[in-house]
Amino acid sequence: xxxxxxxxxxxxxxxxxxxxxxxxxxxxxxxxxxxxxxxxxxxxxxxxxxxxxxxxxxxxxxxxxxxxxxxxxxxxxxxxxxxxxxxxxxxxxxxxxxxxxxxxxxxxxxxxxxxxxxxxxxxxxxxxxxxxxxxxxxxxxxxxxxxxxxxxxxxxxxxxxxxxxxxxxxxxxxxxxxxxxxxxxxxxxxxxxxxxxxxxxxxxxxxxxxxxxxxxxxxxxxxxxxxxxxxxxxxxxxxxxxxxxxxxxxxxxxxxxxxxxxxxxxxxxxxxxxxxxxxxxxxxxxxxxx
Length: 290
Known about the structure:
With 290 residues, the protein is α/β, with parallel strands linked by helices.
């Protein structure tokens, strides 16, 4: 296990203590450490835990915890998918949140490769359980699941654990999760926040409202102009604002500047849009699900 206050995706390129405009690659102070999750079927999954930084340089107790579930690994999704990487770089400092990211079975990233092989969301039930168990055993308070695309399927199918406070879904395709899973979540009774991009490739706001109507406690939020991959800094800010606003009411919108030390991280993949704003997040063919 390694511990650092720097980004996991690469060394900082520069450091400043002036007022900083928070941009795509801005990394704010936090306590970040490599972690391993152990599943009930005997696999080791690699990940990272980012927590607020205490005055002594160690980890501070967060106000709440985000347990993140990444997009489809067979089409580029992994723990460093850009919304989650930016959450880990920013939210410990801006919102006093812990962010747990990990690669599901068979998934690789710069952090390493998790044991096992992709199982179409079936065997991944053990991965979700291991992440929730990790948060519980390490006294990470008030865990919320945050799923993105394929990760929303995992949350809906396997996330109904009494230890979690609720779930936030980004771009749910509802390909693997069925009406039976939605009915089970309705019975589970925990909050379900559903962020649906206006221009999503798989499920758009009106259809999402119809599908999630069977979950009385679900809040479906259409996000104007956004796409399935949450491309661009404005889309990422909206996603993070919604996550923080529901997990910690009254703490959003997040500030766009930071007074204090910060670093500039490096992306784990080459940018695909000709800017420094790495939005791989991840690239899927138009005819493939996420």
